[in-house]
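Q: I have 362 residues here and want to know how they pack in 3D. Can you give me a structure?
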Amino acid sequence: MIQEALFTPDIWLMGLGTVLIALLVTRLMIRIGIVDIPSRRSSHKSATPKSGGMGIIVGFFSAMSFLYVVGKLGHISPEKLILLGIGSFLTILVSLYDDIKRLSSSQKFLIQLITALFVISTGLTLHLLPLPFIGILNLGALGSVLTVFWIIFFMNVFNFMDGLNGLASGVSLVASFFCSLIGILLGEKALFYVSLSLGFSTLGFFVFNFPKAKIFMGDVGSQFIGLIWAVMLLVPSQETHLAHMTLSVYTVPLLFFSFIYDVSATVLRRIWRREPFWLAHRTHLFQLLNRLGYSHAQVTCFHLGMAVIQGIGAIGMQYIQPTNQVLLFLPYFLLMASYHYWIVRAVRRKFALARRSRKKQK
C-alpha cells in the first residue's frame, strides 16, 4: 500500500492536475467577482471576492473522476457514487445561490436535511459505536437519526469556523494529510484516495486564502467540505462487526476537535444567554482571539498547530482498543478548555479596562 501510494505515477499526475485545476478555477472565481461586503460582524474590513470553494469542488471531482476511470475506486458501487453526487450537487447549487443572494437559516437547514437524507439513502449510516464501560453499542434504527444529526452538525461546524484567512481551508488541508497517512498505515485505499483528492484540491485554493485572502471560500466551499468530512466518519461504521473495522469511527471528530469544541462551547454559551445562536455574530473563540489583537495569521497558525496535534492523536487512536478510543479526547478537551478559560478572562479584562477608560474621559 505504501509503495502504491507514494510511487505510482497516477497519484502524482492526479495530484498535479488537481492542484492546477483548483488554482485555475479559484482564479476564475476572483475574476467573476461574487463579492463579500463586510458588515459590523465581519472579521474583514474590505470587500473581497468569495465562492472560491468552487476551485476545491471542481478540483476534487476532477480527481475523483480520474481515480474512478483508472480503477482506483472500483470497489465503490456506481449507484452509491451517483446518490452521493446528487446530494453533493444539491449542496453546491444552493450554497452558491446563498453566496450570491443569501438564504435564511431555516432554508439552509432544510437543504442540509435533504442532503443528509440523500446520504443515508446510500446506506451510509452509523451502525456501531464503541464506548468505554459499555462496550460496542449497536445503534440499529437510531443510527440513521444520529447520522442525519452528525451531517447537519458538522456542515454547520465547518461553516461557522470559516471566518478568518486560511482557518477552515488550512485545518482541512492538515486533516487531509493525516487522513491520507492513516489510509496508508491501515491499508484503507478509499480513505487514502478521497483524503488525497480533497487535500490537493484544497491546496489549490489555500494559496489564494492565506496569509492574505484574495478570495474567500464562501458557503459553497465550507458546506461542501463539511459534507465530505461528515461522510468520511461514516465509512468505518459500515462494518457490522467490530473485528472488521480497521479505521476508528472517532477519527474525523478528533481531527477537527478544536473546531467542534469552539462551535459547541459558543452555541451553549449563547443558548445560556438566550441569544439566537443561528444568527451571525462575533463571539466564537477564534473571533474573540482575533478581537483581542491577534492577527488572522496568528489565530490560524494556532489552529493549524492544534490540527497537527490532533492528527498525531488520530494516528495513535487507530492502535487503541476501540472501546477506549473515546478516552483519547480527554487531554484535547482539557487543552481546549484551558484555551477557552484564558480567552474569556482576557476578553473580560479588556472590556473592563475599556469601561474604566471611558469613565475617566467623562
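Q: Anything worth noting?
A: Strands lie at 35-36, 48-49, 128-131, 135-138. The chain has a mean pLDDT of 87.
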